[in-house]
Specification:
With about 300 residues, the chain is an alpha/beta fold. It is built from ten helices and ten strands. The protein has helices spanning about 15-35, 60-70, 90-100, 115-120, 140-150, 170-180, 210-215, 240-245, 275-280, 285-305, and strands at about 10, 50-55, 75-80, 105-110, 125-130, 160-165, 185-190, 205, 220, 260. Helix 2 (about 60-70) packs across helix 10 (about 285-305) and helix 5 (about 140-150) crosses helix 10 (about 285-305). The structure holds phosphoric acid mono(formamide)ester (CP). The site of phosphoric acid mono(formamide)ester has 10 residues, from helix 2. Phosphoric acid mono(formamide)ester binds near residues 61, 264 and 266.
């Protein structure tokens, strides 16, 4: 593959393995740029990127904005409360107005699964999914996979365990799609009430206890309990969840010494992950954040190129 033709990045489910690899290879080039003394390139000069975040974000929003600055784009930031959504305007009217102002790319986070697929079919500008409900968070999975490749030399044949609230996690879904396409062995672990049964049908190993999910893993990726998307009680208490599924000084013994500990953030310290492990020698959590910048530069660069 030598060029990118898609105007949107909606989900890793939509991409072929070679397209995922193409983004990762492009990100590796941008990581080198990020390590130079002069970190800015003119690739998106004259392009306008609108960051439209209808849900809260620290890492994703900041790294998209920084990526856009590094690529020399013109940038506008809009939040739900500062947009006319709060006055009853529809999402489609809002994004059509943003496009009418000659935005080239809209980077959006929205609580509704499928919101990006809906708007992208009505827009000529590029649409990048920065997270939609419990559905998809493609740039998070790309930066997770990028980090695994950087540390382990590849993902094919590696054992990657994703542990926690799988049911409500867009990060889990995106990682599962991306990792399976690139040939990893994926395990999901957590309380049975938080594990959707359909993943076993697509080749994912399912564990309902922490020890089995951790033993033999080359990577564990821990997820927080996503209370904002839970409409029922899925386990008795946070204390009980932490006791059974928390990775801490006692349970880290199940993990190989050279295995990576990952987390997309935000971490609920002391619940799914103890501080001593989050900040310990096996953790690559802040390196994931750093790699998010290169991955998002790559995504914006490729999509902008497809619009020319
Ligand atoms: N990992 C992630 O999406 O973090 P934010 O919600 O802070 O963007």
């Amino acid at each position: 593959m030598t060029s990118w033709t898609k105007k949107d990045l909606l989900s890793l489910y939509d991409l072929e393995a070679e397209e995922i690899q193409f983004i990762l290879d492009t990100a590796a080039e941008f990581k080198k740029v990020s390590e130079r003394r002069v970190k800015k390139v003119p690739a998106l000069r004259g392009k306008t990127v609108v960051n439209f975040f209808v849900e809260p974000s620290t890492r994703t929003r900041t790294s998209f904005e920084l990526a856009e600055q590094r690529l020399s784009a013109d940038i506008i930031n809009i939040s739900a409360s500062s947009s006319s959504l709060s006055k009853g305007e529809s999402l489609l009217d809002t994004v059509k107005n943003i496009e009418a102002l000659q935005a080239d790319i809209i980077v959006m986070r929205h609580s509704a699964a499928g919101a990006h697929n809906f708007i992208s079919s009505h827009l000529k500008c590029g649409v990048v999914n920065a997270g939609d409900g419990a559905h998809s968070h493609p740039t998070q999975a790309l930066l997770d996979i990028f980090t695994i490749i950087e540390k382990k030399g590849g993902v094919k044949g590696l054992n990657v365990s994703i542990i926690g609230d799988i049911l409500h996690s867009r990060v889990a879904r995106s990682n599962i799609w991306g990792l399976l396409k690139l040939g990893a062995n994926v395990t999901i672990g957590g309380p049975a009430t938080l594990i959707p049964k359909e993943f076993a049908e697509i080749g994912v190993r399912v564990c309902d206890n922490l020890k089995d999910a951790m033993e033999g893993a080359d990577v564990i990726n821990l997820l927080r309990i996503q209370h904002e998307r839970q409409k029922a009680s899925f386990f008795p208490s946070i204390g009980e969840y932490s006791k059974i599924f928390g990775v801490n000084e006692d349970t880290i013994k199940y993990l190989k010494k050279d295995a990576l500990v990952m987390h997309p953030g935000p971490i609920n310290r002391g619940v799914e992950l103890a501080s001593s492990i989050a900040d310990g020698p096996q953790s690559v959590i802040l390196e994931q954040v750093t790699n998010g910048l290169a991955v998002r530069m790559a995504v914006l660069y490729l999509i902008a190129g497809s619009l020319d």
